[in-house]
Design brief:
4-stranded mixed β-sheet; EC 2.7.7.49; RNA-directed DNA polymerase; RNA-directed DNA polymerase activity; RT_dom
Length: about 500
């Protein structure tokens, strides 16, 4: 569940002009972003120049620094060994940002290679993660704040991954919405090593389609070509891909993959034969299927109310589009399915099935088995039988894992899973305490039984074990095109 955050934590910083002081740096950045977003939405063919001055503007660098300093990765250092705390303790934040601006303006700035680390991934295969230097993170964040308002005006509503104000639940809700309306043949697809194989030329061509400022495009290219310092200390050039972990990488991936959204959703564009409900009904009347893509980063599904042959034809189209981006579908993770078989998407299991004891069929959103096994393994890792750690500390870590996991899945049919998770975590903690204190079951009941025979919650130093069954389960409503733009044109001066 590494990438399945409840909100898009990697979606970058969106400065809301309504929530900041008018004269502050954040307020000025917000108003500038709103202007560029408005201009980009007014004319989809406009190419923007003179953006480089915004990237190195003190306001943008200040807001970018604040974002980098607040991020959880602030404690991690790049290949230069410098952390955010080291810069703050030295009292040189202002000088640090002034130096970045000067190096950008005189052309001496060069991104450093990212430090690659391997993080565990479900299934045993590690995921490579790139850690840029603090300097490069600040510049990437500033560049992102310049580019994102422009490209957000172009992105399709069917794209949800790593975009501000959007979340994984919106993608799942859209699948549920259209599955309930007959779109039940599905291409369940995954792009193989998307972030590692994206063709740089394809990315830069799509950036140039909107950006005419050569210095800004050159800065994007420099980040793509920065290289990677491996765990063995060898420098590896990056001829393709965007290193995972870079702030700008998700935006560049979305810019490239928007070509897929545009190709599949072309019939839904104004004037297309699927653009209106009447047009889609006419196609169904003539035995033709309609389709729709739902994409979250490099994971996506294409749904159709036609038949299996329609999905196979769409798969061929997808293969052609991805080939132009230097990508291909993962053979192991891509399949054509009917929703009666069910699909796993972003940790959820979505299936067209009958409700227990009834005759009517519904689209049901449940918790995928893989996601459930993952949280159980997390609890096991936090409660080893021979751990000497204090119970209160373990309870805090277990509670954090349970709260985050249940908050993400509270919109699914999750009652039984939550109930079992309460029992499972309780059993793991009791078994650990029995091993640690050499207790028999009588000692456990003396510890947790009340005089009236009921069980006390496990508590230590004021920390109580979190009860997953107390989480309110409710359906996440499909928002569709009603998701508000993160950049408010009305706030622009």
């Amino acid at each position: 569940m590494v990438r399945d955050a409840s909100v898009n934590s990697g979606a970058g910083l969106v400065v809301d002009a309504a929530e900041v002081a008018v004269g502050s740096a954040a307020g000025r950045v917000a108003r500038t972003q709103a202007k560029y977003h408005r201009w980009a939405g007014t004319d989809r063919g406009t190419r923007f120049g003179d953006l480089f001055n915004l990237v190195c503007h003190p306001d943008y660098l200040q807001v970018a620094w604040e974002h980098v300093a607040r991020n959880k990765g602030a404690r991690s250092a790049g290949i230069d060994g410098v952390t955010v705390r080291r810069i703050v303790d030295a009292g040189g934040v202002e000088a640090f940002l002034t130096g970045i601006a000067a190096s950008l303006k005189d052309g001496s700035y060069r991104p450093m290679p990212v430090r690659r680390v391997l993080i565990p991934k479900p299934g045993g295969k590690p995921r490579p993660l790139g850690i840029p230097t603090v300097t490069d993170r600040v510049v990437q964040q500033s560049l992102r704040m310049v580019l994102e308002p422009i490209f957000e005006a172009d992105f399709s509503p069917v794209s949800y991954g790593f975009r501000p104000k959007r979340r994984a639940h919106d993608a799942v809700a859209e699948i549920h919405f259209y599955a309930s309306r007959g779109y039940r043949w599905v291409l369940d697809a995954d792009i193989e090593a998307c972030f590692d194989n994206l063709d740089h030329r394809a990315v830069l061509d799509r950036v140039r389609a909107r950006i005419s400022d050569n210095r800004t495009v050159a800065l994007v290219r420099a980040f793509l070509k920065a290289g990677v310092l491996t765990e063995l200390g060898t420098l590896r050039e990056t001829g393709a891909g965007t290193p995972q972990g870079g702030i700008i990488s998700p935006l560049l991936a979305n810019i490239a993959l928007s070509a897929l959204d545009e190709a599949i959703m072309a019939p839904w564009a104004p004037g297309g034969d699927q653009a209106t409900q009447v047009g889609r009904a006419k196609r169904r009347h003539h035995g033709l299927g309609n389709w729709r893509i739902v994409r979250y980063a490099d994971d996506f599904v294409i749904m159709t109310n036609g038949g299996r042959d329609d999905v196979v034809a769409l798969q061929e189209q997808v293969t052609t589009v991805l080939a132009r981006l230097g990508l291909r579908l993962s053979q192991a993770k891509t399949a054509v399915r009917h929703l009666s078989e069910g699909i796993d998407f972003l940790g959820f299991h979505i299936q067209w099935r009958r409700r227990r004891g009834g005759r009517k069929w519904f689209c049901m959103t449940m918790i995928a088995d893989k996601a459930f096994r993952s949280i159980k393994q997390t609890i096991r890792n936090l409660t080893p039988r021979r751990s000497p750690r204090p119970l209160s500390m373990v309870l805090m870590e277990v509670n954090a894992a349970l709260r985050g996991w249940t908050a993400y899945f509270r919109h699914a049919i999750a009652g039984r899973r939550f109930s079992f998770l309460r029992y499972f975590s309780w059993r793991r903690l009791v078994a650990w305490q029995r091993e640690q204190h050499r207790w028999n079951w009588t000692a456990v009941t003396r510890w947790l039984r009340r005089p009236d025979g009921s069980w006390r919650p496990i508590t230590a130093a004021g920390v109580m074990l979190f009860d997953p069954t107390k989480v309110r389960i409710r359906r996440y409503l499909y928002r569709g095109n009603r998701i508000p733009s993160p950049y408010k044109p009305t706030m622009a001066a």
